[in-house]
Amino acid sequence: MPLYRISQWALIAPALVLVIALFMMPIAWFVGASLAELGSIDAIWSEAKSVLGSRAILGAIWTTNVIALVVTISALIIGYPLSYALSRAKGLAFSLILICIVVPYFTSVVVRTYAWMVILGRNGIVNQVLLSTGLINEPLNLMYNRLGVVIGMTYVLLPYMVLTLFGAMKAVDSRLLQAAEGMGARPLTIFAKVFLPLTLHGVMAGSLIVFILAIGFFITPALMGGTGDIMMATLIEREIEVSQNWPVAALMTIALLAITLTLYALYGRFADRSGERFV
Amino acid sequence: MMAGNSLRSWILQALVVLLCGGMLAPIAVVVVASFSGGGYLKFPPESLSLQWYFRFLGDARWLASLWNSFVIALMACVFSTAVGFLAAYAIARGAFAFRNAVVALLLMPLIVPHIVTAVAMYFLSARFGLVGFKPWIALAHSVVALPVVLIILQSTLKTIDPNLERAAMISGCSRAGVLRHVVLPLAMPGLISALLFSFLTSFDELLISLFLAGIRAETLPVRIWNSLLLEVEPTIAAVSSLLIAMTIVALVIEWTIRKMRSNELSTSH
């Protein structure tokens, strides 16, 4: 019935208007108008070539991808056993593990980053403990370098990995594992031949979501990184706040959006299979 | 899987306890440190005091930022939940053209790096003199809170039987009436969660506020950010603990509602 259709669109219209007017259009306008400043298509093209040829910017793109990759792998290594335990736990144990993941997940990113600054700082807890036990004579540099960025970002993004993996692991039929065990397979074999293959799409979805969020990350690298850890998001912010170079910021935005949206499309293919798609 | 191998399961359990501890430890550290009595943050604190809380509550600038965040988050959560409820209902019930494309578009603000969203909104706001205008910042926050609302309400609306709506319509209820008298009451637990978590999303949002707040509407995260860039002052530990407490309160409310609802369902059947 046509009346029904119209009311569907009427219901969804406010949300669509909000997202188009305050999200899609501003992004398109910002990119378009900033590039238009350059004048002609040729000028944009040569600016794009010089931006991509610049050491600082190429360096930032490289750094961003390296950090995002290391963070993704770390989150996977820590998240996989955690998620496995969550998917097999019941009752109180399940609630306790879930609390340990959900409380940080919903806590402000600034607060979580600050927590790691308190722990890893020059006068931080780790250094205080190591100094007082006499294991070291002067404070270690655990922050304002890549190590600090990777620790902070892994902590912030870990819940996304665990919750995505959880969806895939919960869907595994435990009778399959019992059958393998009944036929004499050893635990490691069961894991490698049955459990891992069945959760691999979750691994892909979780890794992609963490990587996507990591390449666009701003807060943690800006607070915990050193001068050598400038990531793409930080660079965009600086081009605007410091240099007021809108065309370069627009070109960087295009690059960042291109990577993000391509990987998001890929993520959709894996996440839809696990059914528990929450982004 | 590990039934016959107690050592292996013991190792796994120890690992899980360790990892769970690691997840909570940073948050616990901040809360404990916020009560420290010394002149700077020491862990564990040598003496306990509430001095950093008093310093926070006695500082007009901190309090102003708390108030700004509260006002903005309140507007943003009401607006995004209202708009999101209508959209989530249409998405849950409708098989309309471009449904998947519409959903993907509405969830996009969650995926697109916040720096891009913030810069683009700043570009727009600066031209219309909207920087520092609180209702405008709330509207901007609604864009990133909307996906949170949609995800929560989608799963709630899925549990409501469409036959109840059909029954109401056959009995002569209008579509708007069905929405108000059938769907809205049944979706209430989900609506409360949506309000809570969109409030938190806006209250904790940093990047959009950083660009849009100006001096007039400095929010709490922006104030923390500005102070973190200069030095790690212990007042931030107290502010952070308040934010952590807020998160935990929201989660407890959400858990209580869900518990009440599942009890209701199990007794009514």
UniProtKB/TrEMBL annotation, chain A:
Keywords: Cell membrane, Membrane, Transmembrane, Transmembrane helix, Transport. It is found in: Cell membrane. PROSITE patterns: ABC_TM1. InterPro entries: MetI-like, MetI-like_sf. Residues 61-267 form the ABC transmembrane type-1 domain. Its main location: membrane. Gene3D superfamilies: MetI-like. The chain crosses the membrane at residues 12-36, 56-80, 92-115, 147-169, 190-219, 246-267. It is a multi-pass membrane protein. It comes from the Bacteria. Signal peptide: none annotated. Belongs to the binding-protein-dependent transport system permease family. CysTW subfamily. PANTHER family: ABC TRANSPORTER PERMEASE PROTEIN (PTHR42929:SF5), INNER MEMBRANE ABC TRANSPORTER PERMEASE PROTEIN YDCU-RELATED-RELATED (PTHR42929). This is ABC-type spermidine/putrescine transport system permease subunit I. It comes from Aminobacter niigataensis.
TrEMBL record, chain B:
It is found in: Cell inner membrane; Cell membrane. The keyword Transport applies. The chain crosses the membrane at residues 12-35, 66-91, 103-124, 136-157, 178-200, 235-257. It comes from the Bacteria. It is a multi-pass membrane protein. Keywords: Cell inner membrane, Cell membrane, Membrane, Transmembrane, Transmembrane helix, Transport. CDD domains: TM_PBP2. Residues 66-254 form the ABC transmembrane type-1 domain. It holds the Pfam family BPD_transp_1. Its main location: membrane. InterPro entries: MetI-like, MetI-like_sf. Belongs to the binding-protein-dependent transport system permease family. This is ABC-type spermidine/putrescine transport system permease subunit II.
